[in-house]
Design a protein that fits this description.
Order of helices and strands of chain A: HEEHEHEEEHHHEHEHHEHEEE
Number of domains of chain A: 2
Number of strands of chain A: 12
Helix content of chain A: 25-40%
Structural class of chain A: alpha+beta
Largest sheet of chain A: 7 strands, mixed
CATH architecture of the largest domain in chain A: Alpha-Beta Complex
Distance between the termini of chain A: 43 Å
Radius of gyration of chain A: 21 Å
Strand order of the largest sheet of chain A: 7-9-6-10-8-11-12
Oligomer: homodimer
CATH topology of the largest domain in chain A: Phosphoribosyl-aminoimidazole Synthetase, Chain A, domain 2
């Protein structure tokens, strides 16, 4: 599909990203041929980022590229898969190829080294459109070991990795919706919004331990709802237990309505932490496992047998948060 | 990445497309887990279609969906792979989801049945953007059997399947660049532009026979150039040998400058036929093989040892077509 100019762009800029990718033939073919080891399965996921929607207009091209790759790696992490490659479908705005191309490629090259992945092919198009980056990412995992969303059981603990809410505050900063009093804190919020850290090692570590897993892309409460609904369960979450970074805690302490502010952090997107459903008897082992990776884990609640009228209970200091404040009205 | 509205859209509209897809878990997970048989390899390709660029603004949504899928299946055909699945990344214009959604899904369902493929996951986004459809398609093939672009040898015959140029005339019609005198002919041109026929059976049949293969998405001459360059060769093509449909021949007969008109047909895109490099001793067998599938095959030229100054010779009735009319100036 690539026109002559695009073809040269692919050859010159993107071809080095496929170096060493088995079967990718340095992107001279339109496609690639991949291999799996005996007993291995291929995990596949696809996510698209659009400028002005998932990252701010004028975002550094390298950061945008890395975020597009990383949100897909986060999906693979939630499946318990080890990433090894990806394909790209990039739509460039008509007047915006040159200024973005080098940074885009450099950002991908940097993250390829960090995560051990390679480009396996793709397509670039120039159009009257906002910049968009569609990634399909590939990982390997042993047969029968994949983490799923819909295998949680009533009584499982709801566990999150890392901390929640920084990225949502980073988005607010990017939108100019608040001015931070603390520059270093603001930098952390911004960085976590721009460049998520997919929890690949954690996903690998909890295979066979967690009953279910999901990555937190659309807010902790929303993802807890997905995990519960798809497992046929309800859930309880205590917002006081939600792990916050020191900067997020400082931000929270300045808010007039703390209940509303913590609900906001638990509803804002782009954390890219993992939310896990873990049977109680395995909690201690799992915490030990993930802390060895220097990944903090925190229990924020539990899965409950689904009760028709009241499947979601979210509390803060013993007070119930009303459903209309949770960011979803239907269960 | 899907917001609540998009999430419901995926569940309700797209989930049925993943029914029976091993590991796709009815799209309740963000990703899918795929399996390969022993000795099998996975072929992967990615192509993106943008409204107003690859298909006309206002195109029937089902036809656009099917074209997006089919151009990817055509890439797999050129690799000699048997398609079995795909992922989607769709960007919907803000006010254009409802009017397109049902047709889009129905079109995909129709072609899933035709080609035996299933949806393995994906992502939909609503943005201030033209409608775009990014597909990554998956096929299987035995280890070591994939067709490549860069394995042609000097002396190989250049073979095309089917006929060339109809789709290019269909694009001209869509752009209002000419008014046909013959309605039935116009319908055929339009149909071939809207709905390519990926040559999957032909790709499977010529594995181990053709030295190299490429699908003709950007025009016969341009693809011959790719195949030759990547194999380190030159080529000769006789435009008189290019297979034309009866409607295209009628169109050609009406053109004042036939040499220019046939060059145009050989340079226009969207044919999605296969261009094969075949050793002479295997020509008869290959023709027999493909005619059994009722696919016409035609020799249009040959690969040549690359000669620094003159790697491309394109002729019509013994007359040389000058390089500046071939749609590419560099070799």
């Amino acid at each position: 599909m690539a026109g002559p100019g695009e073809f040269e762009f692919i050859r010159s800029k993107l071809a080095p990203l496929s170096a060493g990718a088995f079967g990718a033939a340095d992107l001279t073919d339109d496609g690639a041929v991949l291999d799996l080891g005996p007993g291995e399965r291929l995990a596949v996921t696809a996510d698209t980022l659009v400028e002005g929607r998932h990252f701010p207009i004028g975002e550094d091209a390298g950061l945008a590229a890395r975020k597009a790759l990383r949100v897909n790696l986060s999906d693979l992490a939630a499946m318990g898969a080890k990433p090894f490659g990806y394909t790209l479908g990039v739509i460039w705005p008509r007047d915006g190829v040159q200024e973005r191309a080098d940074g885009f490629v450099a950002g991908l090259a940097q993250d390829q080294a960090v995560f051990g992945v390679r480009l396996f092919g793709g397509d670039t198009v120039v159009a009257d459109a906002p910049w968009s980056i569609a990634v399909t990412a590939f990982g390997r995992l042993p047969a029968g070991s994949s983490l799923r969303r819909n295998r949680a059981r009533a009584g499982d603990a709801l566990i999150v990795t890392g901390t929640i809410g920084d990225a949502g505050l980073g988005l607010q900063l990017a939108l100019g919706e608040y001015s931070p009093s603390n520059t270093a804190d603001a930098d952390q919020f911004r960085r976590r919004f721009q460049l998520p850290e997919p929890r690949i090692g954690s996903g690998l570590a909890v295979r066979g331990v967690a009953h279910a897993a999901i990555d937190i892309s659309d807010g902790l409460l929303s993802e807890a709802r997905h995990l519960a609904v798809e497992s046929g369960l309800g859930f309880e979450i205590d917002l006081e237990q939600i792990p916050l970074s020191a900067p997020a805690r400082r931000w929270l302490d300045l808010q007039p309505d703390r209940a509303s502010a913590i609900t906001q952090l638990a509803s804002s997107g782009d954390d890219y932490e993992l939310l896990l459903a873990v049977p109680s008897r395995k909690l201690a082992g799992l915490s030990h496992l993930l802390r060895q990776q220097e990944v903090p884990v925190t229990q924020v609640g539990q899965l409950t047998a689904r009760d028709g009228d009241d499947p979601v209970i979210v509390t803060w200091k013993g007070r119930r948060i009303e459903a209309e404040h949770l960011g979803f009205t239907q269960f």
